[in-house]
Structure formats: structure tokens, C-alpha cells
Amino acid sequence: MAAAAAAAVGGPQPPQAEVPAPGLALDKAATAAHLKAALSRPDNRAGAEELQALLERVLSAERPLAAAADGEEAAAAGGGGGPGAAEEEALEWCKCLLAGGGGYDEFCAAVRAYDPAALCGLVWTANFVAYRCRTCGISPCMSLCAECFHQGDHTGHDFNMFRSQAGGACDCGDSNVMRESGFCKRHQIKSSSNIPCVPKDLLMMSEFVLPRFIFCLIQYLREGYNEPAADVPSEKDLNKVLQLLEPQISFLEDLTKMGGAMRSVLTQVLTNQQNYKDLTSGLGENACARKSHEKYLIALKSSGLTYPEDKLVYGIQEPSAGASTLAVQGFASAAGTLGQLDSSDEEDQDGSQGLGKRKRVKLSSNTKDQSIMDVLKHKSFLEELLFWTIKYEFPQKMVTFLLNMLPDQEYKVAFTKTFVQHYAFIMKTLKKSHESDTMSNRIVHISVQLFSNEELARQVTEECQLLDIMVTVLLYMMESCLIKSELQDEENSLHVVVNCGEALLKNNTYWPLVSDFINILSHQSVAKRFLEDHGLLVTWMNFVSFFQGMNLNKRELNEHVEFESQTYYAAFAAELEACAQPMWGLLSHCKVRETQEYTRNVVRYCLEALQDWFDAINFVDEPAPNQVTFHLPLHRYYAMFLSKAVKCQELDLDSVLPDQEMLMKLMIHPLQIQASLAEIHSNMWVRNGLQIKGQAMTYVQSHFCNSMIDPDIYLLQVCASRLDPDYFISSVFERFKVVDLLTMASQHQNTVLDAEHERSMLEGALTFLVILLSLRLHLGMSDDEILRAEMVAQLCMNDRTHSSLLDLIPENPNPKSGIIPGSYSFESVLSAVADFKAPVFEPGGSMQQGMYTPKAEVWDHEFDPVMVILRTVYRRDVQSAMDRYTAFLKQSGKFPGNPWPPYKKRTPLHPSYKGLMRLLHCKTLHIVLFTLLYKILMDHQNLSEHVLCMVLYLIELGLENSAEEESDEEASACGPERCHDSWFPGSNLVSNMRHFINYVRVRVPETAPEVKRDSLASTSSDSLGSLQNSGTAQVFSLVAERRKKFQEIINRSNSEANQVVRPKTSSKWSAPGSAPQLTTAILEIKESILSLLIKLHHKLSGKQNSYYPPWLDDIEILIQPEIPKYSHGDGITAVERILLKAALQSRMNKRIIEEICRKVTPPVPPKKITAAEKKTLDKEERRQKARERQQKLLAEFASRQKSFMETAMDVDSPESDIPMEITTAEPQVSEAVYDCVICGQSGPSSEDRPTGLVVLLQASSVLGQCRDNIEPKKLPISEEEQIYPWDTCAAVHDVRLSLLQRYFKDSSCLLAVSVGWEGGVYVQTCGHTLHIDCHKSYMESLRNDQVLQGFSVDKGEFTCPLCRQFANSVLPCYPGSNVENNLWQRPSNKSIQDLIKEVEELQGRPGAFPVSISSETNLSKEMESVMKDIKNTTQKKYRDYSKTPGSPDNDFLFMYSVARTNLELELIHRGGNLCSGGASTAGKRSCLNQLFHVLALHMRLYSIDSEYNPWRKLTQLLEEMSSQLGNEEQQPEVPILYHDVTSLLLIQILMMPQPLHKDHFTCIVKVLFTLLYTQGLVALSVKCNEEDRSAWKHTGALKKNTCDAEKSYEVLLSFVISELSKGKLYHEEGTQECATIIPVAWSPESMEKYLQDFCLPFLRITSLLQHHLFGEDLPSCQEEEEFSVLSSCLGLLPTFYQTEHPFISASCLDWPVPAFDIISQWCFEINSFTERHAEQGKALLIQESKWKLPHLLQLPENYNTIFQYYHRKTCSVCTKVPKDPAVCLVCGTFVCLKGLCCKQQSYCECVLHSQNCGAGTGIFLLINASVIIIIRGHRFCLWGSVYLDAHGEEDRDLRRGKPLYICKERYKVLEQQWISHTFDHINKRWGPHYNGL
What we know:
Blueprint: H1 2-10, H2 25-40, H3 45-58, H4 62-70, H5 72-77, H6 82-99, H7 104-112, E1 123-124, E2 129-133, E3 144-145, H8 146-151, E4 159-163, E5 168-169, H9 204-224, H10 235-256, H11 260-271, H12 273-280, H13 287-301, H14 332-337, H15 357-366, H16 381-391, H17 396-404, H18 409-421, H19 423-432, H20 436-451, H21 454-464, H22 466-479, E6 482-484, E7 496-498, H23 503-506, H24 511-521, H25 524-532, H26 534-545, E8 553-554, H27 567-587, H28 596-616, E9 627-628, H29 633-647, H30 660-681, H31 690-700, H32 709-722, H33 725-735, H34 755-774, H35 783-797, H36 802-808, H37 824-833, E10 834-837, E11 851-854, H38 856-862, H39 865-871, H40 876-892, H41 923-937, H42 945-960, H43 989-992, E12 997-1005, H44 1009-1020, H45 1022-1029, H46 1037-1053, H47 1057-1060, E13 1078-1087, H48 1089-1101, H49 1116-1119, H50 1131-1145, H51 1147-1158, H52 1171-1209, E14 1234-1235, E15 1242-1243, E16 1251-1260, H53 1289-1303, H54 1306-1312, E17 1320-1331, H55 1332-1344, E18 1358-1359, E19 1366-1367, E20 1369-1372, H56 1382-1385, H57 1392-1404, H58 1418-1433, H59 1448-1469, H60 1481-1484, ...
Antiparallel strand pairs: 1-5, 2-3, 2-4, 6-7, 8-9, 10-11, 12-13, 14-15, 16-17, 16-20, 18-19, 21-22, 21-23, 23-24, 24-25, 25-28, 26-27
Helix pairs in contact: 1-3, 1-12, 2-3, 2-6, 3-9, 4-6, 6-7, 6-9, 6-10, 9-10, 9-11, 9-16, 10-17, 15-26, 17-20, 19-20, 19-22, 20-24, 22-24, 22-26, 24-27, 26-28, 27-29, 28-29, 29-32, 30-32, 30-34, 33-46, 34-42, 35-37, 35-39, 41-42, 41-48, 42-50, 44-45, 48-50, 50-51, 57-65, 58-61, 59-61, ...
């Protein structure tokens, strides 16, 4: 075979190398079959040669590439075929050859049959929806495709759905990554035995063809790549080549999908070194092959980290693309020693030449594997393919192909090794790439598949030095962006740090490499090698030190910084990702005692690196002022490994600690950060801009805190426990710059701090000490205790949702550590400390999430203010926690006032850290505490309650942690400690508390009051003079002395350090002559800490002698000290608690307290406060009072507002009724009075100055959504379930109208029905009125006001000036009494015939209005304009139904339909019936009365020709019946029985002059009822079958002559039947119809019920109308008596009607003319129509009267069912899968949100659908976000989600991917808002959508 291949390459080109003739498909197949046969023979040389010749010809790389090289011109010129044709031809040949003459598809199927795939291995790209199950995953990167996930069983597991960021592959079937229990049904490991062996000849051709095919692909890639000139890779060229190769790569990808058998052939081909050597050597005379080989060598040239031509002194030179700008001048000298570097290739000039000489040497010495430095050498197709994949920046197709091969185990190993071999090259390419984001994702897509597998990672680590390569590559990558560090000693610093402004850091370009490193460190075997390898550790510490001190902040002292740099994001991300996460990864393997050695290694090299760092920055002992860096990763590595050593490995702490001097250096920078935090919060860094605050917040933020602030504080705790406590305490106060403040004098000078910052810095220093001494995170708390403390702290600040808790609780930041959030312990701790508050729905519409709130006992015992302070990002959260604590105490009755933060008992300290408590027992701290207590008592300035609180906290901590040895009557009072300079005898707080201090010498400014006082005192008393000699302590020189002394001790023990120490010239301590105006004074104090505390108690309580030792009354207290009474309270309680503890600790203290209390202390005279101090104190007090006043005002305002809202909005409030008041009490007619909410005047509405109601007009299709069946419509979740809208009310009415229009006269049709079921105009008001001229000026002012929120003034929109409800028009109020007054309501005794005549006359009068409205008054103008608004509210198609556009009949129809729409909607809001009666909510704010006036005014402009007035047909017998049939040519009018009775009612009423007489109203109703009843009888007769009909006809005929025949339904029915039988109505149905009519056994009861139900809708609407026109209340009733109640209310029932009979509907009839005559007249019309169209005639008679209430679609319980069906569903318009699919919840239509594909005339699909489906209102569920979006007209808003997870939370955008379940209450709220049209009022956040949704 090899020989044949060589011959084929070298041999002459076959002559017929031109294009094989097209159309040779048969020949191809034949050739292929022939070759296959030839190759199957034992001696196959001839066949092999023939095949090679053919392949040479078909796959020749010359022709297509020439075309590719010439670019597009060639393609254009080549006309028909072009290069594409040749390639397709080649692919066709390959397919034929592979199939060996058979069909390619059959071949694929055959190969698939041999697929032993136990792995899924499906590869996906970004944005694919996949699943991750933590219960089944072994590696945290495990992921499953949706199919495998749903096929497996994961019930009750901790899984989530996620959108892939970088792409991935399905791990189903891979037991290295997941547990087998989670495999799906398809991949539950098949044993290989049941897979038959692959027959040899099936894949034989593949083995010959594929090597050539892949080589051809590689040649294409070589040819297409041009080394980019001047460092700009021309992406266009690369993409062009890739497009050409698309079919080839796809072909390979398809091969991989054929399953295991084909994959193993491909593996052989890709990894066979011999094949590669033969084909690609580039020898021989084939020019094309030679040329491509040369190109390949050029491309290879820059692939190593160094180039072979210039091996340097140290064998290394780092590439730094474009880094030449970073040549740092300071290094010229250093560079000389390295030999002049000179780079041969202009692409990689090296600017960072001699950075850090030592580092370079160290680096080269430990790189064991020289190969990583050199140019790559490729030995197989796989290696070169990967090389080109990298060169072309990881094209998606190639990546997918390479990954698709991974299920083949042999390939996986080979590929992983190849990947590692190219690692350095990947880094170089990534750095230069312009698309580094995309490229990063693709790299990780590959690497995560390789390195998540522990076995593989270990193998590669051992065989290919994976760790060395990774660390070296990372180091190289960072070296290209180093700059000189400016920390500490700017001039001479040798330290270099990364420059956070570089793209490398800013864009996180290093992310893929770091992520791989973290990934492999998560494997124990790999991490072990890393921790054992000293060389690697040194290199890694080197790497970490690049980040030590980066992003240095310098405090701006003069003006504000011009440009706020945002580099801190990059810095924090880099420290977290590149330093902290690998650290956590390593720590997770140091959990047991056996791993001690690893910790020792890390700690050792960490300390070395730190020592180097201190040397490099020239650090001695004082940090440079006004500088801070938040980044000390070396310190943090050191701290975390120490903590781990003590906590888990039982290592002795002292064995890993350095000497004292190093500890002193170590504490400086972390302490500097703590002080800077206080400075930043005191606004001392304000000139550095907001970003410095951002840094301070990020430093403590939940994702960073346990890699930043926690290790820092722990390191400080370690230092404090081992250093001299006095030194430590004084360092703290010095760092916080408050030393000068700590003086007994009332005035002082602070040389380093402005007065306004003193107070907050002092608070900061004390708070820091409290945190330092009480935090136990690393000092002995167990993991569960830590979790509990963190959770309690977060819950105390605010109630939290489950997901925000998960987010806020700092977890171990390395995601691979196996500590998963949401783990078992998380849930159990959560249920122990918190109660779940289920989501509630306020009627206001603000949706709440499910929240967790702390249990009462947590507030009682576990609330820990210290932890809260440590964890708050915003200072206001501390306040919030205290407010909640206060509220709890008030509520539970434990403490009424303003409590202080409670003191919480701590977990016991781990023995290694016992030394920390010495801080509480050192004189320096006691002096500070004493001084501060004294100053507070004396009201010195700049002290606050917070300071006192912290002072007391520290005293209490000291008492809690006092040394046990102290015996009661201790002798320590005398002894060597009584030295001159000491204030206190010993260092134990318990004994020092009772020590009296008599005199103190202080330095004060000469102006201070003490000076004068003291000079007097010294003259008067000699004793003072003698005292001065005995050296009463001079307060803080003592501290400075101690510090110097300490420094000397260290220097003595460390002689060479002596030369380094600079002389101390620090003016911050006691500088003798620095301020000449300072003078020394002596104060008489005579207090001890105990006496100060007792006086404080008096001061706080404001009473003399308020403290009385409790044990005098109750000796029990001393024996059993834990008293709940003391656990919550304010300062007084705290003082009492401390005194009690002090008494408990020593009998002496107890005695002294009693003594002090016995000496009745005279009130403390305030040492004369100077005017200035007085001023500041007053100011503080005034501020406090002002604040309290403001609070009070605000509270009052809020309650006022609340009561206003209640009265304005409330249903039952009297105020909002005023416009609607029914004046029943006064007999005289009173005019309605309106209040204008703008000008505040009240008065009647007049014609000149009309008043109007604020209304919102909106088009609505809610009515059209009523359906007639009870079965609720479900949202379709499969292809079978589709929704068809033909049973909706809108559809039925549409069909009816078009049917009428087909057969009858148009103008008559438009009076026979109502429209507005779809797109009807609904009018609603908030009930407030305003003058119309006021409104106009209000609109004008809105128009000029640019800051508009959410509504468009140009469209007439505004918000009601009083209640801010959204509105868009004003409805004028008709002058005169508001509700038709009583005169009109008195029943007159006219007969019905008279009334009928009056009605007819009144209707005939053209446009007569009782109030003389002259043609043009303001009122009539306004009515016109509001009518225009109403018309414009809805779209044209919902207004024009006439066949002749613009006919007046259209307007007529539209106007009475508006009335109909509003009545029908009110009925729906009342629940579809009037049983509840009363004036409902809608009635309260109804504007129907005003609306009626406006409509009536306009309707009367169109008088109906009296000929056609339906009134005559109803009330008169027409003589000439037959004449109507005469004129055939014009269409007839609509028969009266086809008319919609409710429409007739509205037409009759609106045609009457307003106001209407009650008599006339009742008359109209009575007449219409007769028609309605007849329609019911007709429908009934049509519904039943022939036998029933004849039976009824008979029974009724017998009763016809009884007295009340006209009121008996049987008689009437029989008459109707007999009349209609004259026509053809009943004839047609003989044959086909019988089946459809279900035979119902009609009983008299069921017929009565049918007739009542038929008439009820009319009665309901009529009653509502009567209620609005005449203000009569609606009676309430049971459902079964609704008919009788309404009919009597409407006056249909004669009053003398006997109720004892069962009620019959017919008794309501009151015929104006003899019943039988008029009925026969009506039936005649029908008969004449059914002559011709019996079918339609019958359909029109059966009207559906029972509509169910409208509902939204029913949604499935689980969101996943919706998501899985819709997120991959293709759009019906463009057949693509939309990016943002949405579904309409009203009708179930699937739409593309924002989809440009479906845009029509600039309207996107959702907006378009909202207009067609809801007349401008659309409710859409966004599939990918689970959120509902509302479109209302030109605005939209996000409504929220109706799907919540198990914790009652929304998951917008499905970020968490947890299972979601329908929340029925929320869905009901949504439906309610839709039906009641209140979206505009309830949802607040509206924005314009510009038709783009």
C-alpha cells in the first residue's frame, strides 16, 4: 500500500486530468464497483495504483485553489461551473468510492448498524439548551443534551437547564464524568458482544480514499493561508477560504456521525504517521505539493515560544506581540547583562526586555521540556489539522469535527496529546486574535472535553509535562504586559506587575488558559504532582507575584482626577480567576493530615516570594502614605494555606510562621487596606472618583470576600496573636491616623487628618478592632457554623429570595471543589434559621417573590452585628439590619426603645490562636478605652454613640476573655510592673478596671481651657508640683516609646537588618517641637474605668444615681449570670451588663462598684465647653432633631397620602360618588355639581364652560373571546393540538353579519346587529372631573415639559392630575341634572298605545334636544371632538362594515355598538349576570350616562327614514304584505325576526330626545320583549323534530281561545309553528339534517328554562341600562330567580302578579297589537325568504345566546413542557427557528419577537398580532425568558412571570434553569387585568416599542 501511494504521488499526472465529463453518475458507480472488486483480490497492487491515479485526478488541489487564490473574479468569470462545481464533483466521487459502487445512503445505514456507541458525544455550539445534573455528575462540567436528559431518570435530583456559553458535548454514557445511574435508556452501557464484527470490505474503500481526502483538505488550508503582513491577520481572507471548504468539512463531520465503526477508520487515518510522511513530505516534482509545503514551513516558523535561529543566553525569549511600546527606560542597564536581544521576525518584537533579571534565570532553569520552546514538528494528519485549526482561529465547523471524534478512545488520547503539544501556539494565536472572545469560547469548548477526565489528565501530565507547559505558557502570556510597580519606593522598585489597562487583562484574554489550569488542578492526582514539584511551585509563585500590588491607587489630594480609570474590574477579575481559583483548587486537596508536606512546600515558597517582594519594593517598616492596592495574592495564598494547615492538617502553627520581623512586615499591607477602607468610607478619597468606592465594595462583595477580605483579616489575626500586643494596637491607631485624637485634652491638633474625618476614622479603627477580635471564620468555626453565620447575616439585612441567598453566601469560589451551593447543608441550615414567606399578590399589582425571613429565635440569639458589618457592601444595609432588629424587639415586647447592637457570644478560639486575646489585655488598649470613656463623659467633640458602643464592646470582649489565673485578691498590684511610665499596674483588664488614675499630663494648644485652669491650680497647691516629678503618665509618648523599643529588640536580634532600618523621623507620634503652640498641662482626673462606667450610666439615663448594683437585691444574679433581661437593650443595658460581668470576675471589683455607688456622686460639672465645641455639639443635636422632625413629617405625609388613595380609589368611599350622586331626597331638580381637579373650583357643567370626566378610551377584543363551550382552551404543546377560533363570539357574529349582507339590503343589515365584539371601544374613568379649558392648558404644559414618562402627549395621553391614572380623553358632562330627575320617573297612567305613539313622534323629530343647543357651543364642539377620539381609538376595519364605504349607516352602527360594548363588558366584570345586584365597582366609576348623551347627540344627526324604522314593524300591522314581494330586483330588508333585539333597544333609546321619560323606556322594553319572546319560540320550534312540532301545534291550538291565550307559550308556540309551516323552513331537513339534531325530550320545564335563558341576556343589558339612565339600584337575587327579579324590575311583570304559581316567562308579555296578527306578519317575512334559501334562513334563526366568560388559554403545570415544544419550533412565516419565540396567551399563535424576517410594513410580528388579535392589546409569553410581555397600543411593558420555581421565585431569562411551575394566583391576576382593561393603571413601567417587537 505504501509503495503504491508513493508511486501515485511521484508518478506523472494522468493525461485526462481535466474535469471528468458530468453526468457520469452511472460511470462513477461502475468505476467504484470495479475498483472495489480489484482491491478485494489478494494481490491488489494494480487496483491500488488505479485508485490512487483516479484520486490524484479527482482531488487535485491545483484547479480549485487557483480559483480560490484569484478570489471572486475567477468565480464570476468562470461562469456556470466556477470552482464550486469542481469541488462538488470531487465530493460526489468520494461518496461513490466510499460506497464502493452502491448507494451512499445505503452505505451510511450499513455503517451505522455497526455502531457500538455507548457514548452520546453530541457536540453543540453556543446558545444550545443543555442540562446539568449535580446529583449524577462526577465532574462539575458534566452536561447532557435535552434528549438524553429527558430519557434518563432525574426525578428529585439537583439539576438545571442552561444555555451553553461556549458550546459543549453530551457526556451521557461516559462513566468518567457522570454516574451510570444517570445514563439515558440509549446509553446504558451496551456490552460490545452484541455488536457484530465489521465486515472487512465494508470500510475498505474508506481506508484508501480518506487519507487522500484529508491531505487534499490540508493542502487547501496551506494554500489559503497567507502570513498576515504587519500583524493584521486579514480575517476576510481566512473566512473566504473557510467558506470554500465548508462542504468538505461538513462531509467529514457527517462521516463522524456514522458511528463508532467509521470513527475508528478516521482515527487510523488521522494518526497514521507513515501516511502523513508519504503524502506531505513535499518532495518529488509535483510543483503544487512543493509550493504548499513551503507555505506550511513559513506558517510553522513562528509557532514555538522561541525560534531556533536565536537561542539566547538563557534559552528563552518571550513573544510579545506589539509590546514594543512597553520598553521601560529604567531597565536599560539590566538589559545589558542579558546580551542584546534581537528578534529575527518583525512580527514578534520584544519590548519587555530585561524585566527582573533574577526572574528570567529562574524561569529558564526549571522548564524541563525544551520542546515547548521550539518550533512545532508534525507527525500526523491530526497534528497538522489542529495546527491549521488554530491558525484559522478555531473555525466552528473544524472544532465540531474534531470534537465529534472524541467518543473514539484511541483518538481521544492522541488528540489530547496533540492539543497539549500545541498549547503554547494556541496562547500566541489567542493573544494576537481580534476575535479573542469567540476564540476563547471555542478553545474552552475543546479543552473542557479533554481535561475534565481525570484519567486522561493524569496520563497527559505524566507523558507530556502538561503542568510545566501550562504554567510556563501562563507565565509567558503575562510577561508581555508587565510594568514597573510604583508601590512604596517609586524610583528604585525592582518589582514588576501586570498592567491592568492592557487588552490581555481588560478583555480577560487569559481566561481559557486559566480555566484549563483550574480544571486540571481539580483532579487529585494532578494537583498532587503540582504540590510535590518544587520547581513548579517556584514558577507559580513567580506568576502570582505579577499580580501582587497591581492597580495601585494614589490618593488625589488637590483636584478631582480627570479620567476615572475602570481598570479595577480587570484587576479584581484577574486576581480571582488567575490567583484565587487555582489556590482554592489546590486547597481542596489539602484536607487531611497526610497532606502536611504539600502545605509546607507552598508556605515555604510563598514566604520566599514575599521576602523577594519586600526586597524588590524596598520595604522597611513604614508604608508609603496615600497609596493602597487591594491586591495581595501572595499574602492571601500564605494565609489560606496557614488556615488549612491548622484546621484540617493538624500542623503546628508556629512551625510554619516566620520570624517576628517578617510578621511585622506581613501585617503592614493588609492593615493598610483596612485603614483605607475606612478612609474611603469617610470620603477622604472622594477626589479619586467613584471607582475607588467601587473597589472598596468589590473587595467585600460576596463573590470576592473569601478570597480577599477574609484571608486579610485572618492574616492580621495571626500576626496579632504572635506580635507584641502594645505594638499591634498602636500600629492600628497610627494606620487609622487617629493617634492625636486620643488625648484627655478637650482640644488637640491632628497633623495627618482633617477634623471632619476624625470621627469616622475613629469609628473605623474601633470597628476594625472589634471585627479582628470577634471574627472566628478561620479561628475555629466549622463549615456548617460558618454557613449558618453567613446566612443569618444576609437574612438580617433583608428578607431574601432563595437564589439571591445562594448568590450572596460566599461559597468556595473554585467551582470544582465539590462544595456546591444548594447542597444538602445549605437547605437544612436555611430551614433552621428562616421561615418561607410565600409570594403574595397585592391588588396594586406589584408581584412579590417567595422570600425567606429570619425566625424569631434567630433575632433573639444569633443576630451578629459584627458579621453584618463585615459583609455589607452598602453601609445602609447595616442600618437596615438594625431597623429590623428594633422592629423585632418592639413587636415581641422585649425592648421598646432604640436598641444597641447586641453582644454575641463567640465560638471558642482554636488553641493555636489564643495569643489573639492578649490584645484585649494590653495597657495600650486600656489607656485608649479609658481616654475614650473619659472624653465621652466630658462631651468632647467628634465622638459618637457608635464610638461608645464599640468601646463597651471591647471592654465586654476583654471581660469575656480574661485570663483564668487571676485570683481574687491578686498580689499583682505590687511588683516590677509598677514602673514610672505606666498608667495601669498590670495588663489584665479585670484588675485595671478598678485602678484609679489621678493626674494626667497632656499636651494641648495654648488656647485650650485646661491651660488656664492648670496654671491657677499649680499656684494654689503644692501637691501638684510634687506630682509632676513623680511622672504621671504622658499619654501617647508611651506608645511611641514602646514602638521604638520593639524595633530595637528586633534589630538587636537581627544584626544585619540594622543597616536597613532608616532612622525614625516620624512626626506622627510625639514630635517634641513640631507645633510650637503646644503646651503641657496637667489634668486632674481621679477616675477608674469602673467609675467612668457608672457615671456614664447616669449620663445616659439622664438621672442622678441611676445605677444600683443589682446583686444587692438579688444575690442569685452573681451565681447565675446569664440573664435574658440584659441581652437586648440600649447603652444603659450594656453598661449594666459590663458592670455585672466585672463584679462576677473579681470580688474586689464588686466591692469597688458598691463603694462608688455609695458615694452619692455629685453631677459631673461639664468642664467648660468652649464656644466652638458647643457649636458643633449643638449642630449635631440640631441635626438629630431635624432628622426626627423630618421623619415625623414624612410619616404623617405618607399616612395622609394613603388615606387619600383609599378615598380616591376605594369602591365604597363617599367622595368619589359625588358626580354620580342620586338625588332622591330633594323633590326639586338640583343641578349636578362637579369639582375640577385642576383649578379646584366646583360648579355645574355649562354649555360655555363644560366639565368633563377623565376617561381612557381603548379598543378591546375581550368580548370577542367569549366561547360557547365550557371546556377551557389549552395552550397547544404538541403539533396535534391547534386552536381554531371559529367558536368565539367574534367569529360567530362575523359570520352572521356577512350572511345577512349576502341576502339583504345593506343599510337594513347594519341596523340588525351590533359590532364591536372585536375592536370595540371601551370607555373607563377614574371618576375625577375637570373643566375642559383647564384640561387643555394642562395638556399644553405637559407638551412643553420634556421629561415625559411612558406616555405620548401628542396622542392626547395624560395622567389624571389627581390620582395619576392613565387617560387619553375627556368626556363632556351633559348640563342639567346628572341622573334623570324624579319628575321623569313618576309612572304616569297612560296606556301603552299612547306611549307607543309618543315614542314614534319623539323619534321622528329631527335633532330636537330639550336644552336648546345652538349649532356651535363649546359643549357641542367638545362632544364632536370626543366622538372623533372614540372613532380613532379603534382601527378602520373595526368601524367599516358597510359595502359602500363611508355610508352614514356605518357611523350609526358604530355608535350604538359602542354603547353595547360598554354594557356587555360591565356585565362581564360583574361575572356575567346581575345576581349580585347593587352598584358594583364598575358602576361606581361608570361613565355610561355621559357616554349615552354623547352618542345620542350624534345618533340624532342621522334620522332613520320613518319608512324603515323598525319601531313601526313592531307596533303596527302593515296592510299590504304582498306588495313587499313585488319588487324583486332590489334586495329585501332584514326580517324583523332576524334582528338582534338588544341592538334594537339601543337604537330606539339613542334615537329618543334626552333625557328620556321612564315611561317611554318601559314602553320600548315591553314592545321589544314581545319580539324577543317570539324569536325564542321560533328558535325552539326549529330545534325540535317533526313529531314534537306536530304535537305542540296540536296542544296549543286547543287552548287558543282561552282568555289569556296571548300570554301562554303553548298557544303562541303552536301558532308560530303553524305559521312557519306555510313556508319551506321545516321542509329541508328531511334527510341529512336528522342526524345533527340531537333528539331532546322537551318537557314543559325544559322549554320554560330554554325560553328564560334565551331572554336573559337582553334583560340583563336592559336592567344595566336602566340602572345607568335612571340611577335605580339593581336588586340582588339567587341565580334561579334572576329572570323574574329583572323582569319585575323593568316593569314587564304586572305588579299584581301572583307569586304562588310557578313563574312563567310568558306572563311578562304585553302585546301592543293582537299577538297572532303581528306574529303572522313577522313569520310571513321569514317564509318569503326561506322560499329561496331555506338553509340560511334556518341558520339565522338559531342564535346562540349563552356565552361563557372570556378566559386566557389554560397553561400546563410545568414550564418545561412549553419550553421544549416552542423553543425549537420553526416560525410559520420564515421557517427558521426564531431567536426570541413568543406565544399569544389569548389565541395561542406562535410569533417571533423582534423577528425582522416576519416584519410587514415596518411592523414586527408581535405588534402586528396584538392589533389583529386584541385590537392593540397583546399578551405574549416569551419562551426563552418565561416572562410575559404586554403590548398596549404603542407601548409595552414586562408584566412578570406566571411560572415560579419551588421557592416561589421567577426565573427571568431562565438563568438558573430550575424547574418552574405555574402560579395559578398570578395567572388569575393577569387574566383579571386583561378582562377589566386595567393593564394601563396597574403596571407602572411602560415604554414605547416603536413597532419593533
